[in-house]
Amino acid sequence: MSDVKQPVVLTGDRTTGPLHLGHYIGSLRARVKLQHEAQQFLLLADTQALTDNVGRHQKVTENVIEVALDYLAVGIDPARSTIFIQSQVPELAELMQYLLNLVSVARLERNPTIKAEIQLRGFERDIPAGFLTYPVSQAADITAFKATHVPVGDDQLPMIEQTNELVRRFNNTVERQVLVECEAVLSQVTRLPGLDGKAKMSKSLGNAIPLGASPDEITKAVNSMYTDPNHLRASDPGQVEGNVVFAFLDAFEPDVQKVDELKAHYRRGGLGDSVVKRVLNERLQALIEPIRTRRREFEGDRAEVLNIVRRGTMRAREVAGGTLSEVKGALGLTYFDQ
Fold first, then answer.
1. What stretches pass through the bilayer (predicted)?
2. Tens of pLDDT along 226-271?
3. What is the CB-side half-sphere exposure of residue 315 using CA atoms within 13 A?
């Protein structure tokens, strides 16, 4: 028997809306693959989503099952992956409380991901405390399951770094190896641009293509994509860099030679935007159609989807509870244990 331990993977999504192609290329494809190679926990991060959705809690809770449906639609197998709801695993909140004692406010404010998100939301100094401590919450999620690998986008790398800082600080404090450091798993395409070419793909910015998009919605989205504003006629040489259509072709078209030929033709002139968009539209239609079909099948029995998540949450509590017991034991918080 091999002595190599199976990797443990923790990943998840803030449940503020159904998932889109940016999520798919960023980590969903990796999650489907990893479930055959690792023990995988998929977190529906409703608690974290509430940190910047005050007064919009109903939107967050309604989308928990929507994200679970997306997971199942892309091929996540609940027999291989544990899907669970963050707020229903109280062990995570307790572990976060202990980890908060190991990090300063100044260190949290220096986290590049948090700094960028604070600026994006216009919080300035009026930062919700829950949002500022988001990295510690994420660290609790990861360490509770002793995850060794975490699929993330490159913008989340500072979060992994801070998680490992907390792991080392805790283990040094209790003078034993209790928590486990993790490593980031980056996809080949770490970030997909939005349809407008001005920002990463985001449902809140209105520049995303949902995984459940209809054929007409896909066509409309592709036709609206930002290309080269100076490519006014098909005969004009065009620029590929910054061209959203080609960014999508790089991400979703498996025939690399075909994409390279399209790029070369576009650069030298003689290839219209409408032709390139038609190629991309056909590719995305073929990609999303089976996902959309599976999603509709699961939507027909939402009670079973809820049962899948309930069973996953019970499993998650067992695992997180075991880690929490180790943490409390290391801290001496075992007053009544015999």
1. none
2. 999 999 899 999 999 999 999 999 999 999 999 999 999 999 999 9
3. 18
pTM: 0.88
The string of pLDDT tens digits covering residues 70-90 is 999 999 999 999 999 999 999
CATH number of 8-192+302-331, picked from 2.40.50.840, 3.30.70.20, 3.40.50.620, 3.40.50.2000: 3.40.50.620
Query: How many CB atoms are closer than 10 A to CB 80?
Result: 14
Distance CA 212, CA 74 (A): 10
Question: Comparing C-alpha atoms, which of 173, 138, 165, 112 is closest to residue 13?
Answer: 138
- The Cα 89–Cα 313 span in angstroms is 7
Architecture in CATH for domain 215-296 = Orthogonal Bundle (1.10)
Non-local (6+) Cβ contacts of 22 within 8 A are 191, 192, 200, 201, 202, 208
As a whole number of angstroms, the distance between CA 11 and CA 226 comes to 31
Other C-beta atoms lying within 10 Å of the C-beta of residue 105: 11
Nearest to 44 by CA among 22, 21, 72: 72
